[in-house]
Structures are given as C-alpha cells and as structure tokens.
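URGENT: need a sanity check before tomorrow's submission.

F., can you look over the 2'-5'-oligoadenylate synthetase record below? I want to be sure the sequence and structure line up before it goes out.
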Amino acid sequence: MAEYFPGLRFGETLEKFLDRKVRPDTMFLNSCGEVINTVVRLIHQHPIYSIKEVIKGGSLGKGTAVKDHSDVDLLVVINNFRKIDDLREQLPNIISSFAEYLLAAVRGETIRIKNTKQALHTLQFKVCCVEDGDWFDVDFLPIIDVINPLNVRGSLEIVYKKMEEEYHNRNYYAKCVARQQVSFVKRVPSRAKDLIRLFKYWNYTEDNDLSSFCIELLVIHIWQKKGSPNNFEKAPMIYDVAYQISFFKEITIAFDDFYSSVNFITKLERSPPYVLDPANPFYNAGPEMGVNGDYSQVQERGRMLLDNLGHAMAEHFPGMHIGETLEKFLDRKVRPDTSFLNSCREVINTVVHLIHHHPDFSIKEVIKGGSLGKGTAVRGHSDVDLLVVVNNYRNVNDLRENMKGIISSFNRYLLAAVKNESIEIAIIGQTPFTLRFELCCAHRDCWFDVDLLPVINVIDPSNVCRSLQMVYDRMDKENCNKDYYSKCLAKHQVDFLKRVPSRVKDVIRLLKYWNYNEDVGLSSFCIELMVIHIWQKKDSPDNFDLQPMIYDVVYLISFFKETTITFNDYYKPDHFTTKLTPPYILDPANPFNDAAPHKRVKGDYSRIQKRGKKLLDNLRPGSKELVQAVTIREPTTTRLNSKLHDRDKICSSRHRKDDSISIIPEATSGRSGLWTALGVGAAITGGLLAAFAIHKITTKEDESDSD
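Structure tokens as predicted:
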C-alpha cells in the first residue's frame, strides 16, 4: 500500500500510527501539566498585579498537541485595568515586570525557564521540568476581562463594534476575546482532535504554510458539516479535509457561534481564501501568500495526500459483486453492449434518412441528442432526441404557430414510411414541442425511446456568441416563445455533453444507473452537469481514477440543497443568477433552464441528500465488502514511498508554535464581495482502512497457523 502519511508503516492501523508518531505520550503530557500549573501558581503570586484567572490555550491547553510540537498560551486576566486603553499603555511594563519576576521565582521550583523574549503583546519563553528535560514553548499574554458572563453574545457585539471603530486597539481586543477561541476548540470531541493532530503532523513534516489554528478550523468546519458527531470513522473525515486543502484557494469558512458571519464577510480586506476566527471576525486564519495569492504549494500537497488516500475504496453500487472492480461492473451492468448500440445506430440512421425525405418539409439537418446521441446511455435506459432543423420557417413565431401541424404531419408520415423498413415504431403521443415514440430493430427485441423535436436555426455560425446573446435577450422579453427558443438551443447543449471524454461519460453512466436503481429523483441532464462540473474543477483531465471523481460528485449530491453550478461556455452566468437561490444547476446553453429538480421534489431535497449520504457511506473504505475483498500482498517500494521514508528519517524535531492567537495584519486597500463557499465535495479514503483490513486478515491467518 502507499504510505499515506510520512512514517506510516505498511499494515499499520491509523490508531496505532497516532499513538506511535502523532499523539504526545501520557508521561510528557503529565509533566507539561505539572510545569504549567507551577507557572500559573507563580503568576497568581505576582506581588504587583491582581490576577483574576489564567486561561490555558495553545495546543496543550486546547488538547491538540502533536508529539515534538507542543506549546501553551497563558491568557492572564489582570484586574488592575478596566479599559483597553489602560492595558495598551501599560502592556510593555506588565510584560517586563513578569519577565523579571518569573526568572527569579522559578529558582525555588523544579522547573526551568529560558529564551525569554518580549514581543509587542506577549512574553515568550521556553519552560521544562528539571527531571525530564522536555522543553516546550509558552506565550504569556496579559489581557483584561471585556466579556460579561451573563450576556456573552451582547458583550461580544459591543467588543466587535469597538474593534471596528478603534483600529489602534483591535489587536488588544483580539487577545481579550481569545478565551472564546480556546473554548471553541476545546469543546470538540477527542476524535476530532485526533484528526487535527494528524493534519498538524502532516503540515509539519510536509513543511506546508498552514498555521496550526487554520488546520484546527478546517477540521472543525468539516466535522460540523457532518453533524458534529462524537463518534465517527476517521478515514472519510480525513479525506474530506484533505480535499478541502487541495482547493484551498477557493475556501470560504466562517462560524456563527459568537457573531453573524454575514455581517463581516463583506468587510474582508482580501478575497478568498478566508477562514475566519470563530471568536474574532477581523482575523483571517488562512495564510496570506503575497500579492498574487499563490496557494499552489498548499494545494499541490493536499492533492498529493488525496492521491495517496484514494487508492482503495469499497466500491458498492446496486448489483455490484464483492471485490468487483468498477471497470468490470461498468461492462457487466452499466454500459450498453456494443451490439445493442450498433443496432440502435442503424435504426436511428434509418429514421433520420426518412425524416430528410419528408415530402412537406425541407430539412437542414437532424441533430442526435439524448443519452444515445451524447454517449451517456445506461443499459436498459436508452433514449435519443432528434432535433429536426426545419427550413420552412424563418422565425420562432412561425414555428410556434405551426408546431402542432408539424408534429402531426411527422406522426402520420413516419407510421407509413417505416412499413418499408426493417424497423418497428410505436407512437407514445404528442406534447406541445415533441413527437414521442419508441423504436426497435425488427431483428432484435430492443426498444428505446425517441423524442422528435422540430426546431429552426436561430444561430449564425459565423458569430455564435453574438447570435446567442440576441436569442437570450429575446427569451427574456418574449415569454411566450421562451420554450421554443430553448428547444432551438439544444444543439449547443448536445455539443457541450458530446465533447467530454469517454471516462467522464462512464462516471455519468454509473451515477445515472444509481439514480435509476435508488429512485433518487435527479434528472439525467442534472447528473450530467454535476459530473462535468466536478471534472472541470479538476482541470478537465482526459484520464483519471474513477473512484475519487465519483466520490466528489456524490459528496456534492449529499449537500444538494447548497449546490450552485453554472458554466460560462456560452454566456456570463452572473447576469442570470442574481435572483436565484440555491440549489441551481444552469443549463450551459440556456441560462433560463435550471436542471435542478425543483418541481419533481417540491422544494424538499432531503431524499436526494439522504440517498447521496447513503452512497457516500458505501463508497468509503473500511466496509465489510472491502475487508472481504482484500488480498494479502507484499508491499512494493515506489519512488514516492522511498521519498517519504527518507524524509521521515531526517524530519527534525523542531517546535512549531501554535499561532492561533495572532496579530491582525495591517489593513490593505480594497474590499472583497461575498464569495460563494466551495461546495465541496470530497472523495475516498481507502488506503488507511485497507491497511487495517490487511492487518486484521494477517493476524487471523497467524492465529490459524499457531493453532
């Protein structure tokens, strides 16, 4: 298996890896606890300042420390000052006084202090127990109490208003609200903190530019999106966080625990990414990568981790055999077989030939759409749309007035014309826009649906963009003709789908198959657009692993109510989305057509989301299907594995500070608008639990041998 995190051994469970490489050991934590308590006791005994309390933050205080990367923030609430102005003026004296006092006070204790350094807002030093010699970082932050415990929300609103008005005091207020920041992280369950530790460990060993606080908020954001569970499988959550990092430049994260985030997002001093401090709406925990905002290294490292995580998954769709690969399943159950497609092609070509020979109409061309025309047909669910471009009418008004007669004429003509051909036809009926019928080859009992749609040519091929804009303007003004124009634009919709590579169409087929079997409630066109949206987000590759792409689309479906998808191939979406509310999935060729199934579900998307989340659970690793399918293999050493092993050997044990309580940078010019959050989506975390499966099977075989 691939080494998913630096230092993870072949066959090692995630739990054992956390104990061996990531979590600080109990003895170290106990020692740190004793040292911190001693320092806190000494702080309370300062001869000049009256101390109300000392709040423990940082990675040790919040419970997110990583082995060899531990620190504590001591928020010292001083009673001597009532106003923030007084604190600001006296802060240098306070810090100097405590620096001298602590260096003298520890001489009679079993602890040592070194490397004291005075900063603008803090006293920084290292401390350790004399007996074990384990040093860790301490930030001492003098603050005052600005929050009324009987009305926390109201007090915070007053503080935020002052922070906005008194820029010179903003950083001092920021330190005073850090108590809420600490409590926000402290209260998450230990399982979520293990994820934080794991990503902080990865961040240190990969030398990423994310702060510890940023990682804490990224993990908590995903944890909250999943309903804030106390107990959960770690592997899927890990993948979702890594997926978020892989698109870091687009991240927009805010929390509403202490303030209404919408009131502050519009005031941000830079555009996404932003990860707002839950206790301080003026602090963006996302790293600022210079003027050009180059987050490529962070995203590249995230994608590298995703690739390592996504090699194994429990592939479970209705009718899928245990251990069956997606490729074999697609061939066996999903893709129409070649002989059926060839038969359909012959039948369709025959009908197209007959259409061109209609005695009453001049036919410019017949465009083949639907699942057979676009190449997205699923076995047992195939159809074709025949867009018949008629030359007899010059404008949409003429087409609308004559549509009923055109459809009736084709109905009579085709019933008579096919009698001389080796095909069969069964008319289903007429709609205001289509003639609907079924076709099959006389030699095979394979029927499929056909929609014949008479249209006219409304686009000048020499200036497609200008023609389309004129059509959109008319659709906006001529409501009576909007649906007729819509059918005339279907050629561009078909072209949009046809040009995607076959591998993308396989993902579309698989999710359409799932949609049919699970009665999800999505239209085929909606699924096609969701898949293409995710594919484009991944830079439109011709070749890719199916599993991660499938997972990302299903993740989108599981949060369908929040989905907002547009394309800019033929128009500028911003001109048409201002009055829309999520979910919406705009037709790439027709900005007035929302492919989201609003009418079908009557505004209740819970069924769609529930089906999506159920499939997510099946796709995630560690399920019974995967465990049963695992075979024992010797590990292979790849170039990536070797590189990670080498890096792990030379990885330094440097301490990296938890900088969650940070100085707010100077304001820059410009303001960002309200950006849409990344729908994020995520993918499969197979490898870690595949390792667990291998470990379990190996253990069981060893026990059998010993018997």
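My own read: The radius of gyration is 32 Å. The chain has three domains: 14-311+678-688, 338-498, 500-619. If you see anything odd, call me.
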